Amino acid sequence: MTTTYARPKTSHFLPAISTMASSYRNPQPPLGMGPSANMWRTNSYYKSSSALPLTFSTQRENFDLVRANTTFYPSNRTTLMTRYTPDDWYKSNHSNYRESESSRKSAERLRKDTIRFMQDKEQLTRRTQENTSKNIAERVNDIVFWRSELSHEIDNIVTETAALSEVKRRLERALAETEGPLQVSQECLYHREKRMSIDLVHDDVEKDLIK
């Protein structure tokens, strides 16, 4: 950005190549610009520009070449002021490389920890499933056993209930058969009560009738 485009003031297509040309006899100094335009120039430019004793008025008098207009933008100045050195670039890349290597190692360690955690959980789940299946099988066997025992006890109770019912019917029949002898004994005792005075004896016959 410190250079300027200049060409000889001539109508020919090619410029003059003689060493005695006016462009060589009168070297063209840089344009005089304001302080805001010189903020981003390097120290070598100021050294070279300070060696030229010509003033702006002298430059205007000895101006033999047609100079192109150059526009200085603030963005260019800002960009040049924020330049970095190759050492900064190398350090930044080296830092990025170390960070990426650290991130890669952390990701690899996390992946290994995750795989180990998955394996541990899988083994724990398998053991828990095996224990649960074993407990369920044992519980099913116990339920089947006690169900068969209950069925057997129910059958025994039904059989005993039927036997008791039979005994009850037999007892009821026996009780019904004792109604006749009871009535006869009561009638005999009733007639024996008709005896008078000394005949009212509590003898063996009366004892047997009462029995």
UniProtKB/TrEMBL annotation:
InterPro entries reported for this sequence: Tektin-like, Tektins
Cell compartment(s), UniProt: Cytoplasm, Cytoskeleton, Cilium axoneme
Domain of life: Eukaryota
Pfam families: Tektin
Keyword Cytoplasm in annotation: yes
Major localization class: cytoplasm
Keywords assigned by UniProt, alphabetized: Cell projection, Cilium, Cytoplasm, Flagellum
The family this protein is said to belong to: Belongs to the tektin family.
Protein name: Tektin
